[in-house]
Amino acid sequence: MKKVVVLLSLGVFLTVSCLKQEEEYTNDERDVYVVTYELPDSLSNLDAKLWKNGALHSTLGEMYATSVYVADSNVYVAGFGVWHAMLWKNGKAQAIGPYPSFARSVFVSDNDVYVAGNEYRIKNDETQYSGFAKLWINGVGHDLSDGTYETTANSVYVSGGDVYVVGGNT
Fold it and tell me: Which of 103, 110, 109 is nearest to 135 (CA)?
């Protein structure tokens, strides 16, 4: 069983990756992937896009794209559309969360796909929703909070079998 470490903070999470001093980086050695979405006047016409090396690679549809991860030759994109957490693998969309839920970060390690986000559930009075931090591993959801506070998971990272999730609560 893998150990899951949950880090909740109200601050901003910043990941910095450095190359070894003796390595030299040049732009033509690596591909750069970026996900974006355009938010028009109406939420019904979202347009999520995947860019590779500054050129449009693919259009993902009427969705929000929030994170991209490349493993081997596979491109994974996390996001949400029609209020469902979504994961795209090589452009093919899959809903991974129930209504309403949001996927915010994706990470792949040893062929396992980790997606951090949140799921909303109806509160006891049945008129409002409360957010629960969520981690999906290979499409199976795991609650990261007990619902006492509204929480969200914003980023996921895996190292040496340990899973790190950063988020916040209100």
Answer: 103
Task: Let me know how long the chain is.
Answer: 170
At residue 19, the pLDDT reads 38
Tell me, what DSSP letter sits at residue 23? -
Core vs surface per residue 110-131: b (16+ CB within 10 A) or e: eeebbbbbbbbeeeeeeeeebb
The ranges assigned to domains in the chain are 3-9+31-169
Pair 160, 2: CB distance under 8 Å: no
Local mean pLDDT, 10-residue blocks, the chain (170 residues): 40 34 60 83 72 84 88 92 88 86 94 94 73 93 87 95 92
Strands 140-143, 129-137: pairing is antiparallel
